[in-house]
Sequence to fold (175 residues):
Amino acid sequence: MAIRAVFWAGIWTGIWAGVLGLAAPHALAQQNGPGDAPAQVSPGTPPVEISDPDGLIKEFETLIGEKRMDDLFVALIRAANLTHPVKNIDPEALRRIGHNLLGLFLETEQIHYVDRVRDESFGTSLRSAVILVYTSRDRWIYFTLVLKRGAVGWQVTKFDYTVDRFDLFPEQKPE
Fold:
């Protein structure tokens, strides 16, 4: 138990160090040159926009399929501009999001498939995708992404996931 806590603390510290600019994880380092420190973001700095929404959705599918939730969290922060001063996101809320994502899959849990079950565009500025995952714990997990077009690219404006279990015998019996 203590080893697992130390392991998660190490991952968590690494994620927060990257998010806060104390280190440059690979997903954030792409904005600068290799080995460069992340640029300081001021309120006047425009948000990061993704030029390829298909590539972003595929990246999320890959990270989920490989259970790399720490990398998914970093990619989500980048694509949704969650650390941009204009967003004014509470650091404690970010910590809770990351904590929930990191604990989503058990170490022994296998992912049987990852499937993009819905991918809809509304006009040329709004896109919604749902990724369905089925695991060895008999769980279906739906990841929902909403992307909106900005000035020069796309931003993630909603990210959500829902765990759906199949219960043949509900806990509450009808009366």
Observations:
- The chain has one domain: 2-165.
- The mean pLDDT is 78.
